[in-house]
Protein backbone atom coordinates (compact mmCIF):
# COMPACT_ATOMS: atom_id res chain seq x y z
CA UNK A 1 0.00 0.00 0.00
CA UNK A 2 1.87 3.07 -1.25
CA UNK A 3 -0.43 5.44 -3.10
CA UNK A 4 -3.87 5.24 -1.58
CA UNK A 5 -6.88 6.86 -3.22
CA UNK A 6 -9.40 7.74 -0.52
CA UNK A 7 -12.71 8.84 -2.02
CA UNK A 8 -14.91 11.02 0.18
CA UNK A 9 -11.99 11.89 2.42
CA UNK A 10 -13.43 15.28 3.42
CA UNK A 11 -16.47 13.58 4.95
CA UNK A 12 -16.95 12.14 8.42
CA UNK A 13 -15.59 8.58 8.24
CA UNK A 14 -13.21 9.33 5.34
CA UNK A 15 -11.44 12.18 7.15
CA UNK A 16 -11.16 10.11 10.32
CA UNK A 17 -9.65 7.29 8.25
CA UNK A 18 -7.08 9.63 6.67
CA UNK A 19 -6.00 10.76 10.13
CA UNK A 20 -5.82 7.13 11.25
CA UNK A 21 -3.75 6.07 8.24
CA UNK A 22 -1.28 8.95 8.55
CA UNK A 23 -0.83 8.08 12.23
CA UNK A 24 -0.49 4.33 11.80
CA UNK A 25 1.22 3.81 8.44
CA UNK A 26 4.55 5.55 7.82
CA UNK A 27 4.70 4.76 4.12
CA UNK A 28 1.26 5.52 2.67
CA UNK A 29 0.72 8.58 0.47
CA UNK A 30 -2.91 9.58 0.33
CA UNK A 31 -4.78 11.14 -2.57
CA UNK A 32 -8.09 12.39 -1.24
CA UNK A 33 -10.75 12.81 -3.94
CA UNK A 34 -13.86 14.55 -2.64
CA UNK A 35 -16.62 16.49 -4.41
CA UNK A 36 -17.16 18.72 -1.34
CA UNK A 37 -20.92 18.28 -1.38
CA UNK A 38 -22.91 19.59 1.60
CA UNK A 39 -21.49 17.02 4.04
CA UNK A 40 -17.83 17.32 3.07
CA UNK A 41 -15.65 20.15 4.31
CA UNK A 42 -11.97 21.03 4.26
CA UNK A 43 -12.43 21.89 7.95
CA UNK A 44 -12.34 18.12 8.54
CA UNK A 45 -8.77 18.05 7.22
CA UNK A 46 -7.26 20.76 9.40
CA UNK A 47 -4.08 19.86 11.32
CA UNK A 48 -3.55 16.46 9.74
CA UNK A 49 -0.52 14.59 11.08
CA UNK A 50 2.32 14.43 8.50
CA UNK A 51 0.35 16.63 6.10
CA UNK A 52 2.98 16.23 3.34
CA UNK A 53 1.64 12.72 2.67
CA UNK A 54 -1.87 14.00 1.90
CA UNK A 55 -2.97 15.50 -1.43
CA UNK A 56 -6.48 16.89 -1.77
CA UNK A 57 -8.28 16.93 -5.13
CA UNK A 58 -11.78 18.33 -5.50
CA UNK A 59 -13.58 16.05 -7.92
CA UNK A 60 -16.59 13.83 -8.40
CA UNK A 61 -16.59 10.04 -8.80
CA UNK A 62 -19.42 10.40 -11.31
CA UNK A 63 -16.88 11.90 -13.75
CA UNK A 64 -14.83 9.12 -15.44
CA UNK A 65 -12.22 11.56 -16.85
CA UNK A 66 -11.37 12.85 -13.38
CA UNK A 67 -10.94 9.28 -12.15
CA UNK A 68 -8.71 8.22 -15.06
CA UNK A 69 -6.45 11.24 -14.47
CA UNK A 70 -6.15 10.53 -10.73
CA UNK A 71 -5.09 6.91 -11.31
CA UNK A 72 -2.52 7.91 -13.95
CA UNK A 73 -1.10 11.01 -12.26
CA UNK A 74 -0.71 9.42 -8.83
CA UNK A 75 0.09 5.76 -9.62
CA UNK A 76 -2.70 4.62 -7.33
CA UNK A 77 -2.33 1.05 -6.01
CA UNK A 78 -5.06 1.02 -3.33
CA UNK A 79 -8.57 2.45 -3.29
CA UNK A 80 -10.56 2.97 -0.11
CA UNK A 81 -14.00 4.02 -1.30
CA UNK A 82 -16.04 6.09 1.18
CA UNK A 83 -17.63 8.65 -1.17
CA UNK A 84 -21.40 8.30 -0.91
CA UNK A 85 -24.63 10.03 -0.14
CA UNK A 86 -25.44 8.60 3.30
CA UNK A 87 -28.47 10.17 4.95
CA UNK A 88 -31.55 7.94 4.90
CA UNK A 89 -34.01 10.85 5.35
CA UNK A 90 -32.51 12.70 2.37
CA UNK A 91 -32.74 9.53 0.26
CA UNK A 92 -36.46 9.42 0.95
CA UNK A 93 -37.02 13.03 -0.12
CA UNK A 94 -34.62 12.81 -3.11
CA UNK A 95 -33.34 9.39 -4.25
CA UNK A 96 -31.80 10.57 -7.55
CA UNK A 97 -28.50 11.79 -6.13
CA UNK A 98 -28.07 8.53 -4.22
CA UNK A 99 -28.25 6.49 -7.40
CA UNK A 100 -25.85 8.82 -9.24
CA UNK A 101 -23.15 8.89 -6.58
CA UNK A 102 -23.53 5.53 -4.86
CA UNK A 103 -24.27 3.36 -7.89
CA UNK A 104 -22.96 5.16 -11.00
CA UNK A 105 -20.02 6.67 -9.09
CA UNK A 106 -18.99 3.28 -7.69
CA UNK A 107 -19.17 1.68 -11.12
CA UNK A 108 -17.01 4.47 -12.60
CA UNK A 109 -14.45 3.92 -9.86
CA UNK A 110 -14.41 0.17 -10.45
CA UNK A 111 -13.89 0.80 -14.17
CA UNK A 112 -11.08 3.26 -13.53
CA UNK A 113 -9.32 0.81 -11.19
CA UNK A 114 -9.68 -2.00 -13.68
CA UNK A 115 -8.34 0.11 -16.55
CA UNK A 116 -5.37 1.28 -14.49
CA UNK A 117 -4.45 -2.08 -12.95
CA UNK A 118 -5.32 -4.85 -15.41
CA UNK A 119 -2.50 -5.96 -17.72
CA UNK A 120 -3.07 -7.10 -21.34
CA UNK A 121 -2.98 -10.77 -20.23
CA UNK A 122 -5.86 -10.08 -17.80
CA UNK A 123 -3.71 -10.34 -14.65
CA UNK A 124 -3.53 -7.46 -12.18
CA UNK A 125 -0.49 -5.51 -11.00
CA UNK A 126 0.68 -7.10 -7.75
CA UNK A 127 -0.55 -5.75 -4.44
CA UNK A 128 -3.40 -3.65 -5.80
CA UNK A 129 -6.66 -3.52 -3.82
CA UNK A 130 -10.11 -1.96 -4.11
CA UNK A 131 -11.78 -1.67 -0.70
CA UNK A 132 -15.45 -0.73 -0.60
CA UNK A 133 -17.06 0.78 2.50
CA UNK A 134 -20.66 -0.30 2.92
CA UNK A 135 -23.36 -0.51 5.54
CA UNK A 136 -25.42 -3.03 7.50
CA UNK A 137 -28.56 -1.31 6.14
CA UNK A 138 -28.28 -3.42 2.96
CA UNK A 139 -29.61 -6.36 5.01
CA UNK A 140 -32.92 -4.67 5.87
CA UNK A 141 -34.49 -4.54 9.32
CA UNK A 142 -34.29 -6.91 12.30
CA UNK A 143 -37.08 -7.55 14.78
CA UNK A 144 -36.32 -7.66 18.52
CA UNK A 145 -34.62 -10.94 19.43
CA UNK A 146 -33.64 -11.89 15.87
CA UNK A 147 -29.96 -12.83 15.42
CA UNK A 148 -27.71 -10.01 14.20
CA UNK A 149 -26.89 -9.71 10.48
CA UNK A 150 -23.80 -11.57 9.32
CA UNK A 151 -21.94 -11.97 6.03
CA UNK A 152 -24.40 -14.69 4.92
CA UNK A 153 -27.54 -12.62 5.48
CA UNK A 154 -29.59 -12.04 2.31
CA UNK A 155 -29.81 -8.50 1.04
CA UNK A 156 -33.19 -6.82 1.71
CA UNK A 157 -32.68 -3.03 1.57
CA UNK A 158 -35.71 -0.90 2.44
CA UNK A 159 -34.73 2.77 1.88
CA UNK A 160 -33.46 4.32 -1.36
CA UNK A 161 -30.13 4.87 0.46
CA UNK A 162 -29.88 1.20 1.48
CA UNK A 163 -30.91 0.08 -2.03
CA UNK A 164 -28.19 2.23 -3.60
CA UNK A 165 -25.55 0.80 -1.25
CA UNK A 166 -26.80 -2.74 -1.93
CA UNK A 167 -26.42 -2.09 -5.68
CA UNK A 168 -22.89 -0.80 -5.13
CA UNK A 169 -21.93 -3.91 -3.11
CA UNK A 170 -23.28 -6.13 -5.89
CA UNK A 171 -21.25 -4.21 -8.48
CA UNK A 172 -18.05 -4.56 -6.44
CA UNK A 173 -18.59 -8.33 -6.17
CA UNK A 174 -19.48 -8.52 -9.86
CA UNK A 175 -16.14 -6.87 -10.77
CA UNK A 176 -14.37 -9.46 -8.61
CA UNK A 177 -16.15 -12.43 -10.21
CA UNK A 178 -16.33 -11.15 -13.80
CA UNK A 179 -13.00 -9.31 -14.10
CA UNK A 180 -10.88 -10.62 -11.20
CA UNK A 181 -10.54 -7.15 -9.65
CA UNK A 182 -8.99 -7.66 -6.16
CA UNK A 183 -11.72 -6.34 -3.89
CA UNK A 184 -12.71 -6.42 -0.24
CA UNK A 185 -15.92 -5.07 1.33
CA UNK A 186 -16.82 -4.04 4.87
CA UNK A 187 -20.43 -3.58 6.01
CA UNK A 188 -20.41 -1.37 9.08
CA UNK A 189 -23.05 -0.46 11.62
CA UNK A 190 -23.92 3.13 12.69
CA UNK A 191 -20.79 5.24 13.20
CA UNK A 192 -20.44 8.10 15.66
CA UNK A 193 -17.58 10.34 16.78
CA UNK A 194 -15.85 13.65 15.92
CA UNK A 195 -16.57 15.40 12.60
CA UNK A 196 -19.98 13.80 11.96
CA UNK A 197 -22.36 16.08 10.06
CA UNK A 198 -25.16 17.21 12.40
CA UNK A 199 -28.03 15.74 10.40
CA UNK A 200 -27.38 12.33 12.01
CA UNK A 201 -28.86 11.34 15.36
CA UNK A 202 -25.94 11.79 17.77
CA UNK A 203 -24.44 15.13 16.62
CA UNK A 204 -27.91 16.60 16.01
CA UNK A 205 -28.97 15.74 19.54
CA UNK A 206 -25.72 17.05 21.06
CA UNK A 207 -25.96 20.41 19.31
CA UNK A 208 -29.70 20.83 19.97
CA UNK A 209 -29.35 19.85 23.64
CA UNK A 210 -26.49 22.31 24.14
CA UNK A 211 -28.68 25.08 22.70
CA UNK A 212 -31.90 24.08 24.47
CA UNK A 213 -33.67 23.18 21.21
CA UNK A 214 -36.15 20.27 20.84
CA UNK A 215 -34.70 16.76 20.52
CA UNK A 216 -36.91 15.05 17.88
CA UNK A 217 -37.17 11.28 18.42
CA UNK A 218 -38.87 9.54 15.49
CA UNK A 219 -41.88 7.37 16.34
CA UNK A 220 -41.65 5.70 19.76
CA UNK A 221 -37.85 6.11 20.02
CA UNK A 222 -37.44 2.37 20.65
CA UNK A 223 -35.50 1.66 17.43
CA UNK A 224 -32.10 0.04 17.91
CA UNK A 225 -28.80 0.74 16.19
CA UNK A 226 -25.39 -0.89 16.79
CA UNK A 227 -23.14 2.08 17.58
CA UNK A 228 -19.54 1.90 16.36
CA UNK A 229 -16.99 4.52 17.40
CA UNK A 230 -15.45 5.90 14.22
CA UNK A 231 -11.86 5.23 15.26
CA UNK A 232 -12.69 1.56 15.88
CA UNK A 233 -14.16 1.48 12.39
CA UNK A 234 -10.98 3.01 10.91
CA UNK A 235 -8.90 0.37 12.68
CA UNK A 236 -11.13 -2.38 11.25
CA UNK A 237 -10.72 -1.03 7.71
CA UNK A 238 -6.93 -0.86 8.09
CA UNK A 239 -6.97 -4.41 9.44
CA UNK A 240 -8.91 -5.63 6.37
CA UNK A 241 -6.49 -3.80 4.04
CA UNK A 242 -3.55 -5.45 5.80
CA UNK A 243 -4.89 -8.95 6.44
CA UNK A 244 -8.26 -9.39 4.69
CA UNK A 245 -8.62 -11.99 1.93
CA UNK A 246 -9.40 -10.74 -1.58
CA UNK A 247 -13.02 -11.32 -2.57
CA UNK A 248 -14.17 -11.40 1.06
CA UNK A 249 -16.71 -9.32 2.97
CA UNK A 250 -16.40 -8.49 6.67
CA UNK A 251 -19.10 -7.17 9.00
CA UNK A 252 -17.95 -4.42 11.38
CA UNK A 253 -20.06 -3.48 14.40
CA UNK A 254 -19.67 -1.76 17.75
CA UNK A 255 -21.46 -4.28 20.02
CA UNK A 256 -23.37 -1.37 21.62
CA UNK A 257 -27.11 -1.70 21.01
CA UNK A 258 -29.21 0.75 23.03
CA UNK A 259 -32.53 2.22 21.88
CA UNK A 260 -32.49 5.69 20.30
CA UNK A 261 -34.26 6.99 23.40
CA UNK A 262 -31.50 5.66 25.66
CA UNK A 263 -28.83 7.26 23.47
CA UNK A 264 -30.55 10.65 23.61
CA UNK A 265 -31.18 10.41 27.35
CA UNK A 266 -27.51 9.55 27.92
CA UNK A 267 -26.42 12.59 25.89
CA UNK A 268 -28.76 14.77 27.98
CA UNK A 269 -27.42 13.34 31.24
CA UNK A 270 -23.77 13.88 30.25
CA UNK A 271 -24.51 17.49 29.26
CA UNK A 272 -26.43 18.07 32.53
CA UNK A 273 -23.35 16.77 34.36
CA UNK A 274 -20.87 18.93 32.41
CA UNK A 275 -22.68 22.19 31.69
CA UNK A 276 -24.30 24.73 34.01
CA UNK A 277 -27.87 23.84 34.99
CA UNK A 278 -30.31 24.83 32.23
CA UNK A 279 -33.18 27.23 33.02
CA UNK A 280 -35.70 24.59 31.84
CA UNK A 281 -34.28 21.85 34.15
CA UNK A 282 -33.04 18.48 32.90
CA UNK A 283 -32.15 18.40 29.22
CA UNK A 284 -34.28 15.24 28.95
CA UNK A 285 -37.29 17.59 29.00
CA UNK A 286 -36.26 18.70 25.48
CA UNK A 287 -37.11 15.24 24.05
CA UNK A 288 -40.10 15.34 21.69
CA UNK A 289 -41.63 12.33 19.93
CA UNK A 290 -42.25 13.31 16.31
CA UNK A 291 -43.79 11.61 13.29
CA UNK A 292 -41.86 8.55 12.22
CA UNK A 293 -39.48 8.17 9.27
CA UNK A 294 -41.38 6.38 6.45
CA UNK A 295 -40.39 2.70 6.38
CA UNK A 296 -38.24 3.20 9.49
CA UNK A 297 -36.06 0.11 10.06
CA UNK A 298 -36.68 -1.10 13.61
CA UNK A 299 -33.30 -2.58 14.44
CA UNK A 300 -29.83 -3.11 12.99
CA UNK A 301 -27.08 -5.20 14.58
CA UNK A 302 -23.93 -6.62 12.98
CA UNK A 303 -22.36 -9.92 13.99
CA UNK A 304 -18.56 -9.48 14.06
CA UNK A 305 -17.40 -13.07 14.66
CA UNK A 306 -15.80 -13.36 11.20
CA UNK A 307 -13.51 -10.33 11.50
CA UNK A 308 -12.80 -11.17 15.13
CA UNK A 309 -11.81 -14.79 14.42
CA UNK A 310 -10.10 -14.37 11.05
CA UNK A 311 -8.37 -11.00 11.44
CA UNK A 312 -8.26 -10.47 15.21
CA UNK A 313 -10.18 -7.17 15.21
CA UNK A 314 -12.81 -6.14 17.74
CA UNK A 315 -14.11 -2.74 18.86
CA UNK A 316 -12.48 -1.24 21.93
CA UNK A 317 -14.70 1.79 22.69
CA UNK A 318 -17.69 1.35 24.98
CA UNK A 319 -20.64 3.60 24.38
CA UNK A 320 -20.42 5.78 27.49
CA UNK A 321 -16.76 6.69 26.97
CA UNK A 322 -17.25 7.04 23.20
CA UNK A 323 -20.17 9.41 23.76
CA UNK A 324 -18.16 11.43 26.27
CA UNK A 325 -15.27 11.80 23.79
CA UNK A 326 -17.73 12.78 21.06
CA UNK A 327 -19.60 15.32 23.18
CA UNK A 328 -16.30 16.82 24.37
CA UNK A 329 -15.19 17.20 20.74
CA UNK A 330 -18.38 19.06 19.77
CA UNK A 331 -18.11 21.31 22.83
CA UNK A 332 -14.49 22.16 21.99
CA UNK A 333 -14.93 22.73 18.25
CA UNK A 334 -17.30 25.63 17.89
CA UNK A 335 -15.43 26.94 14.82
CA UNK A 336 -16.12 23.65 13.02
CA UNK A 337 -19.80 23.84 13.99
CA UNK A 338 -20.10 27.43 12.77
CA UNK A 339 -18.52 26.51 9.42
CA UNK A 340 -21.09 23.73 8.98
CA UNK A 341 -23.96 25.98 10.01
CA UNK A 342 -22.85 28.59 7.50
CA UNK A 343 -23.46 26.18 4.63
CA UNK A 344 -26.70 27.24 2.90
CA UNK A 345 -27.70 23.63 2.39
CA UNK A 346 -27.53 22.96 6.13
CA UNK A 347 -29.96 25.74 6.99
CA UNK A 348 -32.36 24.77 4.21
CA UNK A 349 -32.36 21.14 5.27
CA UNK A 350 -32.93 21.86 8.96
CA UNK A 351 -35.81 24.20 8.19
CA UNK A 352 -37.44 21.81 5.75
CA UNK A 353 -36.94 18.84 8.02
CA UNK A 354 -38.31 20.52 11.11
CA UNK A 355 -41.26 21.87 9.13
CA UNK A 356 -42.08 18.41 7.78
CA UNK A 357 -42.22 16.68 11.15
CA UNK A 358 -45.20 17.37 13.33
CA UNK A 359 -44.58 17.21 17.06
CA UNK A 360 -46.75 14.44 18.45
CA UNK A 361 -46.14 14.77 22.17
C1 LIG B 1 -31.71 12.30 12.62
C2 LIG B 1 -32.63 11.56 13.54
C3 LIG B 1 -32.63 10.18 13.62
N1 LIG B 1 -33.48 9.51 14.44
C4 LIG B 1 -33.42 8.04 14.47
C5 LIG B 1 -33.50 7.33 13.14
C6 LIG B 1 -32.66 6.07 13.37
O1 LIG B 1 -33.44 5.08 14.00
C7 LIG B 1 -31.58 6.53 14.34
C8 LIG B 1 -30.28 6.91 13.67
O2 LIG B 1 -30.59 7.77 12.59
P1 LIG B 1 -29.48 8.34 11.60
O3 LIG B 1 -30.16 9.13 10.55
O4 LIG B 1 -28.43 8.99 12.41
O5 LIG B 1 -28.82 7.01 11.02
P2 LIG B 1 -29.46 5.71 10.28
O6 LIG B 1 -30.67 6.05 9.54
O7 LIG B 1 -29.54 4.60 11.28
O8 LIG B 1 -28.28 5.42 9.23
C9 LIG B 1 -26.89 5.59 9.59
O9 LIG B 1 -26.24 4.37 9.84
C10 LIG B 1 -26.16 3.47 8.77
C11 LIG B 1 -25.43 2.24 9.19
C12 LIG B 1 -25.72 4.08 7.50
O10 LIG B 1 -25.20 3.42 6.64
C13 LIG B 1 -26.13 5.48 7.22
O11 LIG B 1 -25.33 6.10 6.27
C14 LIG B 1 -26.16 6.29 8.46
O12 LIG B 1 -26.78 7.54 8.20
O13 LIG B 1 -32.13 7.68 14.98
C15 LIG B 1 -34.37 10.20 15.26
O14 LIG B 1 -35.14 9.57 16.03
N2 LIG B 1 -34.38 11.55 15.20
C16 LIG B 1 -33.57 12.27 14.38
O15 LIG B 1 -33.65 13.52 14.36
From TrEMBL:
EC class of the enzyme, as a word: lyase
Named cofactor requirement(s): NAD(+)
Any GO BP annotation: nucleotide-sugar metabolic process
UniProt xrefs under Gene3D superfamilies: NAD(P)-binding Rossmann-like Domain (3.40.50.720), UDP-galactose 4-epimerase, domain 1 (3.90.25.10)
EC number from the UniProt entry: 4.2.1.46
Superkingdom of this protein's organism: Bacteria
Catalysed reactions, semicolon-separated: dTDP-alpha-D-glucose = dTDP-4-dehydro-6-deoxy-alpha-D-glucose + H2O
Signal peptide segment: none
One Pfam match: GDP_Man_Dehyd
GO molecular function: dTDP-glucose 4,6-dehydratase activity
InterPro entries (UniProt xref): dTDP_Gluc_deHydtase, NAD(P)-bd_dom, NAD(P)-bd_dom_sf
Keywords carried by this UniProt record: Lyase, NAD
Residue spans crossing the bilayer: none
Boundaries of every NAD(P)-binding domain copy: 5-326
PANTHER family for this protein: DTDP-D-GLUCOSE 4,6-DEHYDRATASE-RELATED (PTHR43000)
Family recorded in the similarity comment: Belongs to the NAD(P)-dependent epimerase/dehydratase family. dTDP-glucose dehydratase subfamily.
Protein known as: dTDP-glucose 4,6-dehydratase
Organism encoding this protein: Levilinea saccharolytica
